[in-house]
Amino acid sequence: MNLLDNIFFALLLAAGIGFFAFNVKKLIRNIKLGKDVNRTDRSSERWKNMAMIALGQQKMVKKPIAGFLHILVYVGFVIINIEVLEIIIDGLFGTHRVFSFMRSLYDILIGSFEILAALVIFAVVVFWIRRNVIKIQRFWKPEMKGWPKNDGNIILYFETVLMLLFLTMNAADYTLQYMNEANNHYVQAGTYPISSFIAPLFNNLSFHSVEIIERVCWWLHIAGILSFLNYLYYSKHLHILLAFPNTYFANLEPKGKFPNSEAVTNEVKMMMDPNADPFAAPAENSEEEIPEKFGASDVQDLNWVQLLNSYTCTECGRCTAECPANQTGKKLSPRKIMMDTRDRLEEVGKNIDTNKGVFKEDGKQLLNDYITQEELWACTSCNACVEACPVNIDPLSIIMDMRRYLVMEQSAAPNELNNMMTNIENNGAPWPYNQMDRLNWTNEA
Amino acid sequence: MSTETLKVPTMAEMMASGKQPDVLFWVGCAGSFDDRAKKITKAFVKILNKAEVNFAVLGTEESCTGDPAKRSGNEFLFQMQAMTNIEVMNAYEIKKIVTACPHCFNTLKNEYPSLGGNYEVMHHTQFLKSLLNEGKLTIEGGKFKGKKITFHDPCYLGRANDVYEAPRDLIRKLEAELVEMRKCKQNGLCCGAGGAQMFKEPEKGNEDVNIRRTEQALEEKPEIIAAGCPFCNTMLTDGVKAKEKENDVTVLDVAELIANAEDL
Fold it and tell me: Where does the record place the Cysteine-rich domain (chain B) (predicted)?
């Protein structure tokens, strides 16, 4: 490589990483639009969750076939990235296979990268067949039309192309290593268990032609990796990074425990305290903040973990497949709740970008414009979606926050529920029975 | 079965005679008013009486925990209910609660503490299991010996609070053949009643959740579908009727199984 190549490589690398960093900054800003919630307690449990669920793929393997294939792609991607490190050093300093001094260790590394690359291609092909030929139901729900469907396939194509480039590059390199050529800088290094089967294709080509193939594949491979990195922010694929913080910050309480609103507690205490003066002005410097609204009608009303959840969701649909409402044909799909939250959050983020850092009212909100009331009222709060999520996303908490808005801000519950609540208010039971009759069962035959 | 012998002391009576029960039996709204659930309440009380448990109920001083209000989104009504109940229970110095309703169980256990109500809360299946362990209760096969029983996990007992084994241990004690549904424990399918769905018509769809769940239970060809929740019980009973299987399959609470086995 000449110096010009090195400079071009450095620029490409800087642009690729720089643009990604720019988007990550935006992502963090958007997540911080959410309300505060403390998720830094019990850190040892949190690290353990991250290690088991994100790193260890504990929940992925609950579906053994998809889980196994996913591990192939996951391990392949993580390990093959060691090769990317070598590529970056070679690119910046004009070396070639700089790690080859490791000799037999290098042979093992390159050999295992190749086998993993082949396994990744295998897994990706099966994934593609599951999506497009077998048409597994959860990939064909209404919310998966258009972009989400294409997005899923584009990622599979991307991964296949990257792996093929890597293997072709190795095949060409392997061929070059054994060619007689003056000043051959292709050192004999590495083992090529897979690409040695591709290499015979180059047998009749000149050194120069094979070298061109090797260089083109090398450049396309690294350019492809940088493009893929930047594709993440625009796709559902951010989970490869966000699964880690998402599992760390996930709820550790029993799934049935829904948070109590402190603002409401203060009001109820006031009502129940016979000495309280309901007209008293709030004490000066009082810490009690009266919330501008109860529950959530838009993304800014959700907490930052819920927003992080929405960016982490990779639309696998395990939640929706387990949802009793969805299984019986209701409109509710927990995955759609997450997708809508992210889409609206992105819309709000863009709004802030175009309006120089301040959100300008756009006449839209998460409720009704994205998520309908029919979806929200179909939920049985059974926690099947929360249990099913391989990265501990909690769609149920968003549904409950939005119900809270509907009832407390808009009195917009279905009529039967209003009757139920009136009964509780009047006679302490969801049905119209007198509280004084609560012991009647003891005297009934 | 006669109910004349039921001994159901109230907290007020206990206090008047200067006594303190070991445990409060939280009956719940369904357990107090719903005809089907009242049978579960009575079955449980019979076992408590037989094991000579020193318990009491709140009776007319009990009020809805607020669970359906909270799940509907009415946080205000929930907290009003919670604080009223907490005031009553704290005045009686309640330490331990047992309930046959997983919704009450979940709310009392998880959502009352931050409002000032700190109690040891047990589901009745856990409580019965502890009676068994302490030797206060013996369960023998009786009339359910060898019968095929499948257990439906209530969401608010199972996924919500990770209680899966207590009800199963009790069923095994009956020397019954416990068969698991395709979807059970963490993966169990809801009966369709949670999240205040019990009190409204379902949204438009192509099937009711309770029918779907009943179908899953019937796949195992059980003689009995065991439940641990009055709402699940209603939903599954309706499901069995809709499938016209009420002559072959009975839906019973775990407490009823134990009480019936002993012919209490």
Answer: 23-109, 149-236
Q: Does domain A293-428 have CATH number 1.20.120?
A: no
pTM over 0.90: yes
Answer yes or no: are the C-beta atoms of A301 and A398 closer than 8 Å.
no
Q: How far is A34 from chain B (nearest CA, A)?
A: 20
- A387 Cβ under 8 Å from any chain B Cβ: yes
Q: Does A382 touch chain B (CB under 8 A)?
A: yes
Q: Which residue from B256, B221, B257, B244 is spatially nearest to B36, judged by alpha carbons?
A: B256
Q: Do B72 and A272 touch (CB under 8 A)?
A: no
CB contact A193 to B (< 8 Å): no
- CB < 8 Å to A437, chain B: 32-33, 60
Q: What is the pLDDT along chain A (445 residues), one digit of tens a residue?
A: 578 999 999 999 999 999 999 999 999 999 999 999 999 999 999 999 999 999 999 999 999 999 999 999 999 988 888 889 999 999 999 999 999 999 899 999 999 999 999 999 999 999 999 999 999 999 999 999 999 999 999 999 999 999 999 999 999 999 999 998 888 889 999 999 999 999 999 989 999 999 999 999 999 999 999 999 999 999 999 999 999 999 999 999 999 999 999 989 988 988 888 777 666 665 555 555 566 799 999 999 999 999 999 999 999 999 999 999 999 999 999 999 999 999 999 999 999 999 999 999 999 999 999 999 999 999 999 999 999 999 999 999 999 999 999 999 999 999 999 999 999 999 999 999 999 999 999 998 7
CATH number of B138-261: 3.40.50
Same fold, B11-132 and B138-261: yes
Residues in A 16-35 with any Cβ partner in B closer than 8 A: none
What is the CATH code of the structural domain delimited by A3-36+43-248? Answer: 1.20.950
CB contact under 8 A, A258 and B70: yes
Q: According to CATH, what is the number of the domain B11-132?
A: 3.40.50
| ipTM of this predicted structure | 0.96
The residues spanned by each domain of chain B are 11-132, 138-261
Which residues of chain A make contact with B208, given a CB cutoff of 8 A? 328
What's the rounded Cα separation, in Å, for the pair A277 and A293?
23
User: Quick one: closest CA in B to A432, which residue?
Assistant: B33
Cα nearest neighbour of B77 on chain A: A425
The full DSSP string for A46-112 is: HHHHIIIIIIS-TTGGGSHHHHHHHHHHHHHHHHHHHHHHHHHHHHHHT-SSGGGGGTHHHHHHHHH
CB contact under 8 A, B77 and A421: yes
Distance CA A217, CA A162 (A): 9
Angle at A317 between CA A314 and CA A322, to 5 degrees: 145
Record: contact A383-B193, CB cut-off 8 A: no
Q: Where are the domains of chain A?
A: 3-36+43-248, 293-428
Burial string for B160-188 (b: 16+ CB within 10 Å, else e) reads bbebbebbbbbbebbebbbeebebbbebb
Closest chain B residue to A296, measured at CA: B73
Q: Which residues of A touch B154 (CB under 8 A)?
A: none
